[in-house]
Specification:
The chain is mainly α. The protein has 18 helices and no strands.
Length: 521
């Protein structure tokens, strides 16, 4: 079965953008209410517990990733019985995973307090363990209530259904949570609502997926050959998930335990905005994942290599533009949102933006690697990168905090950048080309370097442009922010166009986009 990849991708991106906007706006409003009604350190607690539980979720091992990869083949062959068998496997696995996470979470409960440098930073009316338990329940409830049904929707490239359900629940949950916080200022009642809405979301996913694919039932047992393939894939993804957890969560844990909850609270507000933009960028490649997986099953290596270069060029253009926007809008936005007490030094913002760029600039390669199922060969990459990131985080804090907490924070962010540039990206690129594309590695790497150099140059021009704008502006506040926003919308894209317009990449990307738009019409 050949999926209509263009139609599915555009639909997924459209509803994905709507969902991401909802997921940015309404949690942002809740975060704002918490800051103003309760205090900044409550936001720090959210970040700390989220980081802890992301590490606990390692017990998922990568069942869903491995199964969806095998589902791509079953979908291409229109084998609904095999899809149902795989779905049954992931259902059973999730029940076990949920129990493991719950047990591990309860075991580490007594040690949670040691992850906060100074207990005086904990809000006086908070029972740390009570709050942590409900964060734990919110993580576990998905595994018991239908999260496995996402696999079938992802395999058929119907992320739009997942996004639409999520959008509705987020709006409803916002109304309830905002009312609770504004009327009672009670953080506990807010926390109690989290697992309830998570359970409702997953129950709706069960209903939707059964209605769309009534012939696919979670039943049957895997063949020994399928079990062997899944075990091998899981072994590769598990090590990768360990490294990814260290890369994503280590920063918050190190900041909280070594630099304090207050600094984590300020850092987490910047990280929240960056993660919101990262989520929008993720819509692009997650919406394409099913189509790329289908193409890898049915199309030639040469055709897929051309697609990789085209997708990377378009994606890195968008990435460079959003990096520019973050670099010059983060500080004024935080100042408008929270005030001067929420600001970090601009040099920290520079490193945060570099980290954002280098985390995502090879994302297009990542969706091909995921679609190819290159986990076993890649199994040690994120593990070594994650452990290196953790070691560099701790070392940099020990060496730099004598110069101030903000300098130590730069060391934490720089550690993540270095581990990705030295280990993550080179390793992933090499193994994907060695395994599948065979040739074109040097050309692709040079294009990644070129894209970064162009973005760096555009950001330097932006530095002088924004400084000049600050000097001539006679207004402040929201009007000044809007003017800077307009500058960020126009200037980088104009510069990209002037730099790239005569290149072959630009010409091919333009023809590719126009052809897809005509096809949609």
């Amino acid at each position: 079965m050949r999926l209509d990849r263009t139609k599915n991708t555009i639909r997924n991106i459209f509803f994905g953008v709507i969902n991401r906007c909802i997921r940015i706006l309404f949690p942002f409003l809740i975060r704002t209410i918490i800051i103003y009604k309760l205090g900044l350190n409550y936001v720090g607690l959210n970040s700390l517990f989220t980081s802890i539980l992301s590490i606990l979720s390692l017990s998922e091992l990568g069942f869903d990733t491995a199964v969806v990869f095998i589902m791509y083949r079953a979908v291409a062959q229109n084998d609904e019985k095999q899809i149902g068998t795989l779905l049954n496997f992931i259902r059973k696995a999730y029940l076990i995973v949920g129990t493991v996470i719950l047990t591990a979470g309860l075991v580490i409960t007594p040690f949670v307090k040691y992850l906060i440098k100074d207990s005086a930073e904990i809000p006086a009316d908070i029972n740390l363990y009570h709050i942590y338990i409900f964060f734990l329940l919110n993580t576990v409830v998905s595994y018991y209530f239908g999260a496995y049904r996402k696999c079938i929707l992802n395999a058929y490239q119907r992320q739009d259904v997942i996004n639409n359900i999520d959008s509705v629940i987020v709006v409803i949950s916002f109304a309830v949570q905002a009312a609770v916080l504004l009327t009672t200022s009670n953080y506990y009642v807010y926390i109690y609502t989290l697992p309830v809405f998570t359970a409702v979301t997953n129950l709706l996913l069960i209903v939707a997926s059964k209605k769309m694919y009534p012939n696919i039932r979670a039943e049957g047992n895997l063949k020994d050959s399928d079990k062997a393939e899944i075990k091998k894939l899981i072994a590769g993804t598990f090590l990768g998930k360990i490294g990814a957890a260290f890369s994503v969560s280590a920063d918050s844990l190190v900041i909280s335990s070594m630099l304090g909850l207050t600094l984590l609270s300020r850092y987490s507000n910047y990280a929240y905005i960056i993660s919101a933009i990262t989520g929008i960028m993720a819509i692009i490649y997650t919406s394409m994942q099913g189509g790329v997986g289908n193409s890898l099953q049915l199309d030639s290596v040469e055709k897929n290599y051309v697609d990789l270069n085209c997708f990377t060029f378009i994606y890195d253009w968008i990435l460079g533009w959003t990096t520019f926007c973050l670099l010059y809008l983060l500080q004024p936005f935080i100042k408008l949102w929270i005030g001067n007490e929420g600001l970090l030094p601009f040099i920290v913002v520079v490193f945060l933006c570099l980290n954002y760029y280098f985390t995502l600039f090879d994302s297009m390669l990542g969706i091909f690697k995921l679609g190819l199922g290159i986990w076993w060969e890649d199994r040690f990459r994120t593990l070594i990168g994650g452990l290196a990131n953790l070691a560099l985080n701790i070392t940099s804090v020990f060496l730099l905090r004598r110069f101030g907490d903000d300098i130590a924070l730069i060391g934490v962010v720089a550690s993540t950048i270095l581990s990705n540039l030295i280990i993550g990206t080179p390793w992933a690129t090499y193994i994907t080309f060695k395994k599948y594309f065979k040739s074109g590695l040097g050309e692709y790497v040079l294009k990644l370097v070129r894209n970064f150099v162009v973005t760096l140059g555009v950001c330097v021009v932006g530095y002088f442009a924004t400084n000049y704008l600050d000097k001539i502006l006679t207004i402040a506040g929201i009007p000044a922010f809007i003017l800077k926003l307009v500058l960020c919308l126009i200037l980088p894209n104009l510069l990209y166009f002037l730099i790239y317009m005569k290149t072959e990449d630009f010409k091919y990307a333009k023809s590719y986009i126009m052809a897809r738009l005509k096809k949609v019409k």
